[in-house]
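TODO from last week: model Lysosomal Pro-X carboxypeptidase.
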Amino acid sequence: DAGLQWLSSTFCLCSPLKSLQDAAIFKNWLSETWVNLAMVNYPYKADFLQPLPAWPIQEVCKFLKDPSLSDKLLLQNVFQAVHLYYNYSGEASCLDMSETATKNLGQLGWYYQACTEMVMPTCTDGVNDMFEPQKWDFEAFSEECYRLWGVRPRPSWLLSVYGGKNIDSHSNIVFSNGGLDPWSAGGVTQNISSSLVAIVIPDGAHHLDLRSRNPLDPKSVQQARALEISYMKQWIDKARH
């Protein structure tokens, strides 16, 4: 109980931790925070998931350089890191574990889509990643979807409708992925045909090429946008003739 109280106070949580189940939710919240930070590691200030400084991963990692610290000091540093993500603007009086993105993003639509059309198995092993081992549990995912939306996920729907990895017969698609984006692990990163092309942006976080131009855009994203436009022009010209 004393530990839960200390964590609640140290992390300025809006709802204090009261049980081991709360502690598990707390750990999942931290894990999701690291994933989100990697997604939005943009080269300039942005507020896609939360208001953040340029290259937020570099800023967050400043607090996490010394793994030899005592447990409590390590956790206090972890707080400083997540505090930068959740309260860079300085407006939050406490940290709410139920919100990992700004309210105006409307994340509920994404959760519904994941529960119906886009079932994406995710797991961790603690060896090839920085997280505690956690197997993919479709039943638990299904129960959560039913609790939230009253729907059951259809794991084969996406594969049946769009072909999964067997998409040789498709055409005129650019698959762009940022090398800094965790989602790129599930993306198409090799050309499949002359009109199913992959563009990898080494310095790109989540959909950086689809954001507005910015003077701080790295060269790799500028080149990617030019290449995307070039492909689209080719396909339009081909369709005209």
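Done. Residues 113 and 119 are 8 Å apart (CA to CA).
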